[in-house]
Design goal:
alpha/beta
Length: about 280
């Protein structure tokens, strides 16, 4: 009985220390400094920033090359204790050059970020794999992991393909796989596929909700992912099963963007709502 009590105490302590990060998409209306302050006032431990756009001229937060904004963001982090978890976004396409993002690596090190989100767009998997290995090598001196996110409309459409690419790349020390609930719910990914990922490759996961299924068009999937995710519990993705299949101490990035719904809330109230709806899956 004593051993069981100790184990329960340790497990409860772990759950109480669960790390929650306010993802860029949940705070996309904020500057980096504002996002840090919102996270602090809403109960998060970390934030995520999009410092490189996901497409030319797409929305982003501006810190690279902006000394004053970086100074203010670092001051806000120091004042609040909020850290930066992940940065976005690197895309590996057919013309990939790992040094394109040198400025992103450098500012990530200044922010003490833990990870950079990686998307795979090259349809030739062998070349994508080689370039992923080169990216991990380029990022190694900066202390961040390269977390490859599978998305059903990309060249890395499911968890199995992400694991295959990383394995064939030689499983670099800073390699990782990012599991986003919406992409599990809308890709050919099973819970067995999730369990097959070595926990050493899992550095964080993203929570949101949506209507699950694999019959959506590419345009529909992209629109939902970028503009109309549901709050956890408002869709029908089996979030309980997913997060039970992932490590219990895995940090959680709360990534809920819904342009129409969030317009009814202040930045702080939306961040609080997202966290409030997420936490029951980890109690």
């Amino acid at each position: 009985m004593m051993a069981l009590g100790v184990n329960l105490f340790i497990w409860n302590e772990t759950m109480q220390q669960r790390t929650f990060s306010l993802a860029y998409l949940s705070s996309h209306r904020c500057s980096p400094q504002e996002a840090v302050q919102v996270a602090a006032q809403s109960g998060y431990n970390h934030v995520g920033f999009r410092l490189w756009p996901n497409a030319p001229k797409a929305p982003q937060q501006h810190l690279i090359g902006n000394f004053q904004a970086l100074k203010e963001t670092l001051a806000a982090m120091n004042d609040t204790g909020i850290g930066v978890f992940d940065l976005e976004l690197i895309r590996i396409n057919e013309s990939f050059d790992a040094h394109t993002w040198d400025a992103l690596y450098e500012i990530g090190a200044q922010l003490k970020a833990k990870a950079i989100l990686i998307a795979g767009d090259d349809p030739i998997e062998s070349r994508l794999t080689d370039n992923y290995a080169k990216l991990c090598e380029a990022m190694k001196p900066f202390g961040m992991t390269a977390d490859l996110e599978f998305m059903p409309w990309t060249a890395v459409p499911n968890a199995t393909s992400a694991l295959r690419i990383i394995t064939n790349a030689g499983t670099p020390q800073n390699a990782g796989i990012l599991v986003d609930a919406i992409h599990v719910g809308r890709s050919h990914t099973t819970l067995e596929d999730i369990r097959a990922i070595n926990p050493s490759l899992l550095h964080y996961s993203q929570i949101c909700d949506a209507q699950a299924g694999t019959n959506f068009t590419t345009e529909e999937m992209i629109h939902t992912a970028r503009c109309a995710r549901e709050l956890p519990g408002d869709g029908n993705i089996d979030l309980n099963a997913l997060f039970n299949a992932l490590p219990r101490d895995l940090p959680i990035s709360v990534e809920v963007v819904h342009f129409e719904n969030e317009a009814q809330f202040s930045n702080i109230d939306w961040a609080k709502k997202c966290l409030e709806k997420s936490k029951p899956y980890f109690d």
